[in-house]
Design a protein that fits this description.
The chain is of the alpha+beta class. The chain is built from 3 helices and 10 strands, in the order ααββαββββββββ.
Length: 162
């Protein structure tokens, strides 16, 4: 059976969305002080010490694997904490940055403002960073959740320049 580039791109996109859903669902579940009903469930995904990271047999961070995906923004509905949540992501350039929010414009013209809180993690050039280190023109990948019209960033990454 012959596999073409569109099939590979579609599979990579689906894997990226699955990884994004897991990326957003697992940390919130880890914050829950109640015991897990199945300790085995945390060992099936990812690798030891990093439960829920990735697909079975694929260790590492989901965005590292999704580097070849060319999508610019998207949303997926994920079930977590007994309810449904909108996992959201965007790739683009910062047009406005402050200590509490960042506005990102994608190549297709979509502009979203992302609120930051104490759970927002920022990485710049591969190192831990802060919201105050982000500046206009930085190319970023942002992932988080949307509730109503409010997007809350859980992860903001400024990749190393190539």
């Amino acid at each position: 059976m012959k596999t073409n580039r569109k099939t590979i791109a579609a599979a990579a996109g689906a894997a990226g969305l699955l990884g994004l859903g897991l990326y957003l669902a697992v940390p919130a579940a880890a914050d829950d002080p109640s015991p897990s009903p199945s300790p085995k469930a945390t060992r099936e995904w990812g690798h030891p010490g990093r439960p829920g990271w990735g697909h079975p047999g694929m260790g590492g961070h989901p965005f590292r694997r999704a580097g070849g995906v060319r999508g610019v923004h998207g949303e997926a509905t994920v079930k977590r904490d007994g309810g449904f949540h909108l996992a959201t992501w965007q790739r683009g350039d910062i047009t406005s940055a402050s200590a509490t929010a960042v506005t990102v414009r994608s190549e297709d013209g979509v502009s979203w403002t992302w609120k930051a809180d104490d759970k927002t993690r920022v990485r710049k050039d591969g190192d831990k960073s802060a919201m105050t280190d982000l500046k206009n023109g930085d190319r970023v990948l942002v992932a988080g959740e949307r509730s109503g019209d409010t997007r809350t960033a859980r992860f903001i990454r400024v990749p190393k320049p190539r």
